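Hi R.,

As promised on Friday, here is the backbone we talked about, encoded as structure tokens. Could you run it through your design pipeline when you get a chance and send me back a sequence?
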């Protein structure tokens, strides 16, 4: 592996551009190539971000011998297929969240990565932000006592468009997979495991996907996560960890926050605030690069087993709502 880690970008949409922008703030990272379904979009992306090679197919990108790791930013329903393609060609992979459409797909992705001894990680960038790292440290140090409840939400009001990926079942649309994965993953990070029970309610809109949803995850010892998501409903965007001796607040919008507050009984609040080095997407890339250089095939902060458990939790919720995607 060369001194600079050479990235391939699979997909050229809005998220790919955000990731590539973040990557530009990492001095030992290089965007080596981009793959799209069309040559013109690949060329435009390559020009914008200085990639020396642009391919009109994902296959061609996966076959590039001068790419060390591929970031997958395609729509949800393609994550499994694209990840398997890259792994089959011997490439390490950072795959956008949600990791897959369901746990069955996630397990297939993880199985192949482990079989080939290749790095794979879900791109839950929130976990690697400095404010989130600080919050995890406060919790691990026992600063709020025993964490008992997590609260979090991610909802916004999108214009109704039946062709949009947000509302199209063919694209794995709906609030849970698109943005609900953030609070679900946050709760999983705090409580470090799969809930013993998952219950919730959703409004299934005219296109057959969940337009808004609220859910309660119950963990052992009575610990609870109270969460919500929406693509037609604006929500506050804060997240909290409530403990026996205090609480941690991740300030809005919590999934890309630069600020966390520790509040403890009998103490002045402690504020942590740190601007991102780039746009925030760079920290997950830095973790991937650390793992690759260390010869690790998964990140201890976003392990593959946990990505499967998160998908299983969302599967359980969708089953209650009768929400099944056409490809399942």
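Update: got your reply. Pasting your designed sequence below so it's all in one thread:
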């Amino acid at each position: 592996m060369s001194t600079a880690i050479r990235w391939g970008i699979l997909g050229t949409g809005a998220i790919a551009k955000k990731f590539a922008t973040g990557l530009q703030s990492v001095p030992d990272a290089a965007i080596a190539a981009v793959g799209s379904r069309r040559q013109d979009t690949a060329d435009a992306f390559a020009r914008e971000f200085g990639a020396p090679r642009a391919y009109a197919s994902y296959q061609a990108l996966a076959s590039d011998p001068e790419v060390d790791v591929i970031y997958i930013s395609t729509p949800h329903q393609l994550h499994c297929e694209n990840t398997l393609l890259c792994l089959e060609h011997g490439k390490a992979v950072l795959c956008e969240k949600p990791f897959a459409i369901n746990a069955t797909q996630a397990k297939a992705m993880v199985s192949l990565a482990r079989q080939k001894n290749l790095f794979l990680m879900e791109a839950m960038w929130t976990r690697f932000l400095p404010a989130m790292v600080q919050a995890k440290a406060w919790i691990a140090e026992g600063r709020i006592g025993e964490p008992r409840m997590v609260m979090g939400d991610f909802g916004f009001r999108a214009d109704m468009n039946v062709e949009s990926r947000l509302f199209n079942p063919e694209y794995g649309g709906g609030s849970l997979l698109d943005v609900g994965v953030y609070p679900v993953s946050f709760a999983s990070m705090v409580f470090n495991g799969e809930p013993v029970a998952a219950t919730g309610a959703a409004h299934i809109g005219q296109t057959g996907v969940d337009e808004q949803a609220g859910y309660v995850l119950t963990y052992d010892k009575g610990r609870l996560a109270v969460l919500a998501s929406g693509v037609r409903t604006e929500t506050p965007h804060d997240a909290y960890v409530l403990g026996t001796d205090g609480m941690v607040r991740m300030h809005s919008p919590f999934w890309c926050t630069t600020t966390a507050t520790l509040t403890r009984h009998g103490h002045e609040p402690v504020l942590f605030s740190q601007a991102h080095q780039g746009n925030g997407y760079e920290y997950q890339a830095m973790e991937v690069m650390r793992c690759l250089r260390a010869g690790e095939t998964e990140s201890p902060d976003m392990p593959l087993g946990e990505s499967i458990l998160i998908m299983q939790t969302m599967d359980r919720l969708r089953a209650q709502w009768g929400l099944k995607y056409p490809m399942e």
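One thing I noticed while checking it: Residues 304-321 form the longest helix (18 residues).

Thanks again,
M.
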